[in-house]
Amino acid sequence: METITGLPFMFLILCLVTREFLLNSDAQLTNCVDSDREALVDFKNGLHDPENRLSSWKGSNCCQWWGISCETTSGAVIAVDLHNPYPNNYDESTGTSGFWNPSGEIRPSLTKLKFLRLLDLSFNTFDGNTIPQFFGSLKNLQYLNLSNSGFRGPIPDSFGILQQNLTHLKLNDNALNGTLPESLGQLSELSTFDVSSNKLTGVVTEAHFLKLKKLSYLDLSSNSFKLNVNSNWVPPFQISSLSMRACHLGPSFPAWLKSQKQVMSLDFSNASLSGSIPNWFWEFSYPLLRLNLSFNQLAGQLPSRLEFSALGFPSQVIHLTGAVVDFSSNNFSGSIPKPRGINILDLSKNKLSGNIPNNISQSLVFLSIAYNQINGEIPASICNIGPYLKAIDLSNNNLTGSIPSSIGNCSDLSVLDISNNNLSGTIPTFLGQLGGLQTLHLHGNKLYGRLPSSFQNLSSLETLNLGNYRLSGVIPPWIGKGFERLRILSLRSNSFSGELPALLSNLSSLQILDLAENQLVGSIPPSFGHFKGMHMSQAQMINHYLLYRPSRSGIYILGGGNYEIVGSYYESFVVNMKGQPLRYTKTLSLVTALDLSGNNLSGDLPIEITNLLGLLVLDLSSNQITGHIPESISKLKELLSLDLSSNRFSGAIPQSLGSLSSLGYLNLSNNELSGPIPDKDQMLTFNASSFAGNVGLCSRQLAVKCPGSDKNGKPDKGRTTPKDAGNGDSFINKWFYLSIGLGFAAGILVPYLIMTMRKSWSIAYFDVVDKVVDRILYLWLKYTTTKQRTGRHQQRR
């Protein structure tokens, strides 16, 4: 059972029960008090309601208005519930929530509702509004929920004059700032307090909890709080759910937790804790359903058996026997503990060593021991006892041997990541039995052979990463059929041969195709310009985590907010961008890349590739591609990285490349390009290394002067053309020097030919030459003398 906004299942039920208790189903049969109706009308007038959601607020009986409940006998208004019941029902046409999205001013007329017990304005858009001080005047208020509504500013001190009745205070997921008022410690009836995911700061002391004897649910997460209490402090409450994620609790493990006997949910993740977990923590029989100590510096060894008691569970949740445990991103060492009564176990990114215990998956739905120092083989019992596994992540360890056939029994498996180990053998055909598999990472092992045809059955795949193997043969055309959900396909660094299958373009959801460093030949199919998943521009795409979460009955996962959800596998992928490998996780859903580098591809670049308007990365380097770079490459406006180096491209660099304002990396080196490098817009941001190895290129970046340009690579303004000169001087000068040159050549060649024939011809020839030379010299002297006189005359004027 999943939850909303981070509340565990039982507390969600508790809140709903409380709300129903405060509301009376028979109240609509009662006539409301006139003064209450007038107060509600004034309150409505302060709201901005463009969708007219409060259209029922008319008539004399306000007890029948939507969101209003009245006390049965007196008709007094006891509840104003205007929360958005469908916060995720987004209306794209209006850009707002599809059901209810009021905003505006919260008027003090609410204080006239003397018997108001419940006020819920959650999941609305009061952006920029501060929480009104007059809320502290609502003396009978028991339930106040302002979460997820855009409130800013400090928490009012007046919330402390509410100490007699307030049981539930929810201010989470807003933009509140300032410190936590000490007056909140006076709320003696408070049982639920949530200020998580705000911008609150300051020190939290014992005074903040002074009279909170009934507190059972506390969430201070995702603020900048520092807890400063005495080492022997004993809290006045017995907490059931405690979350201080991203607060400063350390460095040592909180000793005051020893006094708490009813903890069902504990989140101390990213809380600056270091050192080892004290023995008393493991000796207590907490009725834990959830334990999150991830992203700390905790060290030492975990107990050999990791077991949590189900004693003390309320009867309505006794069936929830499996715990959620996250010890990831710490410095724990030693062997892997054997879990019992745990459904979700995350031990990734530690320093654990040794073998994986037999029968580890007895009750597990999610298992991650990635990024450790685990060795040995994957136990054959991995799926024999616990066939309900949905996610297995054993990546980045030192595992050896082959992939056990028992994995084929994990019929519910959605995620299998055993990448970057030392596994050997062929890719087993039984993996094709996992029809529900969504992401499969086998890359970075020592597997060899061909791609099993049984993989055609994996129609639910979204990610298939088989890179860095010794796979051979042709890329089977069936990959282009039946994989409608496939987003990422990587066969990088193998020994695939043959031509690119044109049918790959049928993968309509594909956003990343990486076939680099193989032995592929032939030309790039024009159909590669038809990948629909690469056509969408960034403005049309929505960023979201590519994650996979178990949802088996009896399992709850605490989610919501802007933090990582325990028990989820977050998809990540390494893209070669800007000349280096970059790993993407949070923004992976926005990445589009086509990498065919390091093959033996030939022929021209099909112009259809420029139809991939959403492409961020295009790498065709180290092939034998010929022809011109198409001018239409300027259509790829989203392009961040373009690598066409080490090919046989010829002709000029398109001037339109300069219009790609997002382009941060360009490599056109080692081709047969010629002509000047465009010297405008984005092209001015790239240095000589982007164009090296093209002997026909010229520009100031390459320190190669283009014809008709000055030393800076710009057109030489010192040289004038006949049009620029405005007279015939340059024209005459050019022809004079040309005639001298021609005469010199004639003077060498013609006499030689004549003198080899007859002597009389040679005498006559030289007579003619003397006359012609005399005539040319006479004309030249006359011309220069006239020009000098004209110049002196103009100077006198």
UniProtKB/TrEMBL annotation:
UniProt domain Leucine-rich repeat-containing N-terminal plant-type: residue ranges: 34-70
Disease resistance R13L4/SHOC-2-like LRR domain residues: 109-260
Annotated membrane topology: Single-pass type I membrane protein
InterPro entries per the UniProt record, alphabetical: Leu-rich_rpt (IPR001611), Leu-rich_rpt_typical-subtyp (IPR003591), LRR_dom_sf (IPR032675), LRR_N_plant-typ (IPR013210), LRR_R13L4/SHOC2-like (IPR055414), RLP23-like (IPR046956)
Primary localisation category: membrane
Cytoplasm found in the keyword field: no
Record bears the keyword Cytoplasm: no
Pfam families in UniProt: LRR_1, LRR_14, LRR_8, LRRNT_2
Cellular localisation: Cell membrane
Signal peptide: 1-27
Transmembrane segments: 735-754
UniProtKB keywords: Cell membrane, Glycoprotein, Leucine-rich repeat, Membrane, Receptor, Repeat, Signal, Transmembrane, Transmembrane helix
Highest taxon above the source species: Eukaryota
Family: Belongs to the RLP family.
Name of this protein: Receptor-like protein EIX1
Natural source organism: Ziziphus jujuba
Lineage: Eukaryota, Viridiplantae, Streptophyta, Embryophyta, Tracheophyta
Name of the gene this protein is made from: LOC132800414
